[in-house]
């Protein structure tokens, strides 16, 4: 604007304004990267006026053969076409085909032979099949509601079902699938689900996951999500209602997605009384099946059968666990206007750790997540003990954490159990309710969930809190080789194990921590995060919906943040490159009579400082009266003496910051004064918006400074503490402090 032209001329005259020819556009908006808003997904990040999603309801009958481990099932699916498109075929997921002969995952797996490798790990490391297990579905039939066979085509882990007539908008189609497969030994294949066989007592503990053919997602974003299941990236699923009847040996206890519909038929009189009492007990768990009762059943092994019936409403999946070894405890939890039942199932091998900690961890997770997102809407939440596993499904999860045979366990085992239970129970919120596409965007459920897991530890388990998922904890990964690193926004199947874990879980969590604690502040962040969860509860959000909602609900421009943390691989490394200390010269001179001219170097010489410490004291500088020609058309004058008075006796510190790592970051500065007091000062990331490589800023302090440190509490994920400190001699001790605390 012309009215400020004279100001620009003045700044140019004193050399304080510099163009940045190397500008890389890190503060550009993401509009050209994100999908264009439309009537389905709005520019604010909320579902649009025309948003739609499909629905699939299931009625399933399944039987577990405890002798052969064969799972036999029959399902009837009612598929609702709520899309604006007419459909001529449907896609289903056949996840168990991951272990079928010549599956795509095995064919594409790479690995080399190494000498002296334990035999149990040979197949996992090389991809060479050395097992006698015959996996994959046996699809016996696919029929319409009249019993007429429907043509189908199996493509590895996907099955296309041809419709007998086009399925128009608003119509539904009912069809059935009969199938079976043999459950696998999870110790052999290290997959989700499977069974553990306990050689000492000859019993099985089953965790059934991805156990039935399921509908793929069809949405406004990409049509059918029928990307093959390769084992690492997880699932995209449709909401619906489930009624499932599970037939097992009559001495088994079954935990599953949903509420038990026939407790009187499957529980003893004593168990039923304890179960009903647990629904009204909020202070501690009620033991429904005791350890003594479970141990007794391990020896008798009933040959009779019982059928457990469960019903679940508005869920995206269904899983269950079954074993005669299960001890069962339960406790009611108060969240909002709901009182869900927190329940744990575990064999005696899990005690005494599980009876002390599992249900308590469910309670803590449900309470904190409900506070930060939305009130937990489902009636139950199970934690089931399964060795070396952490896996989530609606209302039920399978978790590791086992003491030694003597019942003793380490602090790390305790942290592991509490962490996995909180994490997997937390997945009820992301992605079981806020139903993102796990196959494509791992971070949208794992990263957000790891962030809230970390928050649960910080608030409910401060004595167990560590650096997992924090800015400090992600530094070793961020310092890695950038040529071998992919951004968070990459698809998970294309990442190596360590990179998958970091990009899917801990780096997004660390990023959200920076966003909450440093960029936005807890109040704005929490409101925006809750807005996202509530907008997209029981819907299918995409990354743009999260990014846009966080900005829309907070009023904070975050495009630079998403661009750097989620689309890039650079790290935070800001250096305190140069510090100059100034004081206003106080000699009494009649400045008005001087021939005033601004000379090159007057505002920055500081020749007396050696650039490494403050030992030579401050450089004095003079403020001249403002020349008449600099007022331009203004008739008034600035009070030059008032400005001098404001600065008289003050310490001015001119600091040059260099962005060595490339990732844009706020600045958190710790000032240590001569009297021993300290001050934390926070500078927003927008300081870099004109020059992304190097900035100079002047600070005015009442007291004399003896030490300046960037990121003193390790909240920015700065990867090099050695260049964060002035005087330079203090840098090494600060770096040693970081290494010790990391």
Question: Could you explain the architecture of this structure?
Answer:
This protein is α+β, with helices and mostly antiparallel strands and 742 residues long. The protein has 2 domains: 2-24 and 573-741, no CATH class; 55-266 and 305-316 and 399-566, Immunoglobulin-like. Helix content is 24%, strand content 26%. It contains 17 helices and 31 strands. Strands 4-7-2-1-13-17-15 form a 7-stranded mixed beta sheet. β19 and β20 (341-346) form a beta hairpin. α8 (353-372) crosses α10 and α12 packs across α13. It is elongated and about 100 Å long. Residues 412-565 form the Peptidase M1 membrane alanine aminopeptidase domain. GO terms for molecular function: metallopeptidase activity; zinc ion binding. Residues 1-18 form the signal peptide. InterPro entries: Peptidase_M1_dom (IPR014782), Peptidase_M4/M1_CTD_sf (IPR027268). Keywords: Signal.
- Contiguous runs where pLDDT drops below 50 for at least 5 residues: 1-23, 589-609
| Radius of gyration, whole Å | 32 Å
Distance between the termini: 50 Å
**Major sheet strand order:** 4-7-2-1-13-17-15
- What's the CATH topology name of the largest domain? Immunoglobulin-like
**Outline:** elongated
Structural domains: how many: 2
Beta strand %: 25-35%
CATH architecture of the largest domain: Sandwich
> What structural class should be given to the helix and strand makeup?
alpha+beta
CATH class category of the largest domain: Mainly Beta
* Number of beta strands: 31
Q: Would you tell me the overall average pLDDT?
A: 92
Q: What percent of the residues sit in helical stretches (DSSP H or I)?
A: 10-25%
CATH superfamily of the largest domain: tricorn interacting facor f3 domain
Largest sheet: 7 strands, mixed
Treating each run of at least 4 consecutive H or I residues as one helix, how many helices? 17
């Amino acid at each position: 604007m012309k009215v400020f032209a004279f100001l620009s001329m003045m700044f140019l005259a004193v050399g304080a304004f510099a163009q940045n020819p190397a500008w890389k556009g890190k503060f550009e908006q993401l509009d050209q990267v994100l999908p264009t808003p439309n009537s389905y997904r709005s520019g604010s990040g909320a579902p649009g006026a025309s948003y739609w999603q499909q629905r699939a309801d299931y009625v399933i009958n399944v039987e577990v053969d405890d002798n052969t481990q064969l799972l036999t099932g029959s399902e009837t699916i009612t598929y609702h076409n709520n899309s604006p498109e007419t459909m001529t075929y449907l896609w289903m997921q056949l996840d168990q085909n991951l272990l079928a002969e010549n599956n795509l995952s095995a064919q594409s797996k790479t690995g080399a032979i190494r000498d002296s490798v334990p035999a149990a790990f040979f197949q996992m490391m090389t991809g060479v099949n050395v097992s006698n297990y015959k996996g994959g579905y046996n699809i016996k039939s696919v029929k319409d509601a009249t019993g007429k066979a429907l043509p189908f085509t199996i493509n590895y882990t996907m099955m296309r079902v041809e419709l007998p007539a086009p399925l128009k908008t608003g119509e539904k189609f009912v069809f059935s699938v009969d199938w079976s497969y043999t459950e696998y030994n999870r110790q052999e294949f290290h997959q989700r689900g499977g069974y553990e066989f306990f050689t000492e007592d000859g019993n099985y503990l089953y965790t059934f996951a991805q156990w039935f053919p399921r509908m793929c997602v069809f949405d406004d974003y990409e049509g059918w999500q029928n990307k093959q299941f390769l084992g690492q990236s997880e699932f995209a699923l449709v909401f619906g209602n489930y009624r499932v009847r599970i037939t097992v040996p009559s001495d088994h206890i079954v935990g599953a997605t949903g509420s038990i519909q026939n407790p009187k038929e499957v529980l003893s009189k004593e168990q039923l009384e304890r179960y009903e009492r647990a629904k009204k007990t909020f202070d501690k768990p009620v033991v429904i099946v005791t350890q003594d009762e479970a141990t007794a059943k391990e020896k008798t092994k009933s040959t009779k059968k019982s059928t457990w019936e469960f019903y679940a409403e508005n869920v995206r999946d269904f899983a269950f666990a079954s074993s005669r070894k299960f001890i069962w405890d339960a406790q009611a939890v108060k969240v909002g206007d709901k009182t869900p039942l927190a329940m744990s199932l575990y064999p005696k091998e899990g005690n005494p750790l599980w009876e002390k900690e599992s249900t308590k961890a469910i309670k803590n997770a449900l309470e904190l997540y409900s506070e930060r997102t939305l009130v937990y809407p489902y009636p139950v939440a199970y934690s089931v003990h399964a060795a070396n596993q952490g896996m989530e499904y609606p209302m039920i999860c399978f978790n590791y954490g086992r003491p030694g045979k003597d019942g003793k366990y380490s602090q790390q085992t305790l942290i592991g159990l509490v962490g996995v239970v909180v994490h997997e129970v937390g997945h009820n919120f992301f992605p079981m309710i806020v139903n993102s596409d796990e196959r494509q965007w791992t971070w949208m459920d794992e990263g957000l969930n790891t962030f809230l897991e970390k928050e649960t530890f910080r608030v409910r388990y401060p004595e167990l809190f560590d650096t997992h998922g924090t800015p400090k904890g992600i530094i070793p990964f961020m310092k890695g080789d950038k040529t071998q690193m992919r951004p968070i926004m990459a698809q998970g199947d294309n990442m190596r194990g360590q990179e998958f874990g970091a990009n899917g879980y801990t780096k997004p969590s660390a990023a959200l921590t920076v966003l909450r604690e440093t960029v936005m502040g807890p109040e704005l962040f929490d409101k925006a995060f809750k807005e996202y969860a509530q907008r997209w509860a029981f819907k299918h959000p995409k990354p743009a919906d999260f990014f846009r909602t966080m900005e829309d609900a907070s009023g904070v421009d975050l495009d630079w943040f998403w661009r750097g943390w989620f689309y890039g691989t650079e790290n935070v490394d800001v250096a305190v490159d140069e510090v100059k200390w100034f004081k206003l010269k106080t000699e009494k001179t009649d400045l008005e009579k001087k021939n005033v001219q601004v000379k090159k170097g007057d505002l920055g010489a500081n020749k007396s400082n050696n650039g490494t410490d403050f030992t030579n004291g401050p450089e004095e500088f003079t403020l001249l009266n403002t020349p008449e020609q600099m007022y331009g058309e203004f008739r008034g004058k600035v009070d030059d003496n008032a400005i001098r008075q404001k600065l008289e006796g003050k310490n001015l510190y001119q600091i040059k910051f260099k962005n060595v790592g490339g990732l844009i970051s706020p600045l958190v500065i710790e000032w240590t004064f001569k009297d021993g007091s300290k001050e934390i000062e926070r500078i927003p990331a927008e300081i870099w918006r004109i020059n992304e490589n190097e900035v100079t800023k002047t600070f005015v302090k009442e007291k004399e400074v003896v030490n300046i440190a960037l990121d003193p509490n390790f909240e920015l994920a700065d990867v090099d503490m050695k260049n964060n400190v002035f005087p330079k001699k203090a840098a090494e001790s600060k770096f040693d402090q970081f290494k010790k605390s990391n």
